[in-house]
Amino acid sequence: MDKTLAIIKPDATKKRIIGKIIERIEAEGFTIARMKLVHLTKDEAKGFYIVHKEKGFYDSLTEFMSSGPVVIMVLEAENAVRLWRDAMGATDPALAKPGTIRHAHGFSIERNATHGSDARETAEWEIDYFFKK
Ligand code: GDP
Questions:
Q1: What is the reported pLDDT for 4?
Q2: Residue nearest to atom 11 of ligand 1 (CA)
Q3: Mean per-residue pLDDT of the chain
Q4: How far does residue 30's CA lie from ligand 1's centre (Å)?
Q5: Crossing angle, helix 18-27 and helix 80-88, to 10 degrees?
Q6: For ligand 1, is residue 31 a contact (CB within 6 Å)?
């Protein structure tokens, strides 16, 4: 079965919508294979978003991602990466389609409620990053 990594970001945990987002994940037909609630350190957030290290928003993004608890999950389904990205919607909530999680719950292009891997290879790397034994 295909896998993807999902994160409920600090803006969403602070708004107490973990349950709403997990309800959506289950309604989409995903199996939640792994799940943990953690408060990332800034260094852990920087390591996770290392591909963005040259971007102007890297410091702000990693500060935000380490500002409160996050829920990190491995989701399983056919075409898991595509299915989860479609459910989340566009990165910028202002551009996300009605019915998507980011449209409903995102606050800004940075504080956009959820993360999802963008490709199968990325998903493998991201799952290892948080769940390697
Ligand atoms: P995603 O795959 O849809 O999450 O988008 P990206 O991989 O492009 O960016 C990763 C994360 O960085 C996004 O989910 C946002 O939280 C944040 N981000 C992306 N673009 C911007 C931006 O222009 N400004 C800021 N402040 N954050 C951004």
A1: 98
A2: 110
A3: 98
A4: 24
A5: 130
A6: no
